[in-house]
Amino acid sequence: MARLLPVLLALLFCGYVRPISFSLPPNSRKCLREEIHKNVLVTGEYELSEAHNQGQVRLKITDSAGHILYSKEDASKGKFAFTTEEYDMFEVCFDSKLPAGAGRVPDQLVNLIMKHGVEAKNYEEIAKVEKLKPLEVELRRLEDLSESIVNDFAYMKKREEEMRDTNESTNVRVLYFSIFSMCCLMGLATWQVFYLRRFFKAKKLIE
């Protein structure tokens, strides 16, 4: 039972999503970054507080290559969704543009909720389509969550193996480089000895 406790706690807390709130000053840009696995559904909901003469706020979501996954010019309140094609770093940016002559305006409050993987699935809709009972829906959710945790562990194991292989390869290269450096130094020292010997003989300092 003690071994199952961490897994049960993970299953409970993974379903809890906390919104992110931050202030967006006029004519500023704030971005959030997150690493997400391949073939993962990502959903989000955002809302900006109203401000007089604040201008427009643009919302743009891009990957590390600069591909635009979602863009909204006049973002005040809405939702977005996309599915990742590769494991990558994704960036969510809010860009505020204040019109000329607007004067001094207060900051806007941005509330953002992002979900991915199991958290992004709409189990109520799945229950309606497949006609599942509440207990069956909860079991489906726990099954998907368990599968997600197993996949995360498998990914971490794969990364650990890749890092171990990289470390071993680096150690072998460093060893070969050290041997090569020692051989070069020994060769240079031997050449210096013979060169000085010939030089001193030429100067008749030694026989």
From TrEMBL:
GO CC term, one of those recorded: COPII-coated ER to Golgi transport vesicle
Gene (UniProt): tmed10.L
PANTHER family the UniProt entry points to: TRANSMEMBRANE EMP24 DOMAIN-CONTAINING PROTEIN
Signal sequence, renumbered to the chain: 1-19
Major localization listed first in the record, in broad terms: endoplasmic reticulum
Compartment(s) of residence: Endoplasmic reticulum membrane; Membrane
Keyword set, alphabetical order: Endoplasmic reticulum, Membrane, Receptor, Signal, Transmembrane, Transmembrane helix
This protein's name: MGC85513 protein
Transmembrane helix keyword on record: yes
Domain of life: Eukaryota
Family affiliation: Belongs to the EMP24/GP25L family.
Limits of the GOLD domain: 29-181
Keyword Transmembrane: yes
Pfam families (alphabetical): EMP24_GP25L (PF01105)
PROSITE patterns referenced in this protein's UniProt entry, alphabetically: GOLD
Originating species: Xenopus laevis
Membrane topology according to the record: Single-pass type I membrane protein
Transmembrane segments: 174-196
GO biological process, one term: endoplasmic reticulum to Golgi vesicle-mediated transport
